[in-house]
Amino acid sequence: MQPRPNNGFHPVFCTIVPPHLLDKLSQADDPRLAGPARRTLRADAARRDRRRMTALAYAPEVPSTSDPVPSKPHRTLYDCRHGTDLPGHLVRDEGDEATQDASVNRAYAGLGATFELLLTAYGRSSIDGKGLPLIGSVHYDEKYNNAFFDGEQMVFGDGDGEIFLDFTVAIDVIAHELAHGLTQYTANLAYQGQSGALNESVSDVFGSLVKQYSLGQSAEQGDWLIGAGLLAPRVSGVALRSMKAPGTAYDDDVLGKDPQPASMDDYIETDEDNGGVHVNSGIPNRAFHLLATALGGNAWERAGQVWFDVLTGGALAQDAEFADFARLTVAAARSRFGEGDEAEAVLKAWSEVGVPTR
Fold first, then answer.
1. Helix (H, G, I), strand (E, B), or coil: what is residue 332?
2. CA–CA separation, 195 vs 188, rounded Å?
3. Which of 139, 162, 176, 177 is catalytic?
4. For the whole model, what pTM was predicted?
5. Mind listing the pLDDT tens digit for each residue in 17-42?
């Protein structure tokens, strides 16, 4: 596949909780579970439609090339006070002392941790490479069961307290959503089918890397879970997704069983969720986990560097499929590390999940 020039940004509305899970929850007999899920689905659909309408007119400001690239984040946090008007009421700016609101402080820290990983590990200043200010809004809507990046800022709900807790509790959720912005400013992967699943997977990868980096964990020490701590105690599950073992994150009488496939043998063909972007992302997720644990050490150093090189290298087409991405990771590993352990581990990881590299 030939790369296409990225002549314009096409920001999409990306949520951490996939529609299929909220659909399942909305069918619960208990109105305490079904009501917030239905409300969240309606709110997401409305905002997704607004995003589609404004995407064509969206043109992010491009800083002058003479502007110095910031080496520190500029974070601004707002409180929606359970409304839906964004960004809300200003509650914390960069450098301000911590507030009495734990959600504000967690979001502030998560945005900062993501900025720090990108700068320290990859020399990139914020998600756009130019020090883009990071905006977050907490306490969005009533019992809102999601968090999202809308192309311009981060937004966090409080959850319903029955199935989901506050969406700022998991740093990888914060980093996952912000990583959609990284993809938007680089490869700009189309949010449909396999390219959409790659878009979701890249966010899971960098979400997990930010968590491991902030905790000082090696690849072996990381739990490789996305959204650990987000599910309420009544739920039979540990997280939204498992990169190590896709399909095992939850098995609950209300939510159902985690549907993610772990290899191409079980790839799901569907028209739902933009062609299953939140489901089939389990395949490249597992490939990255296999690579990172095979190499050992800190996952953001070698495995993460290969993924970052592909995302930012300019050769990845917007409509890339898994095999296209896989071939580029092999080339990136050889380019950066030569014909050694890294390239061999990349080849083996993709082979184990059934994605061809030749």
1. helix
2. 10
3. 177
4. 0.93
5. 999 999 999 999 999 999 999 999 99
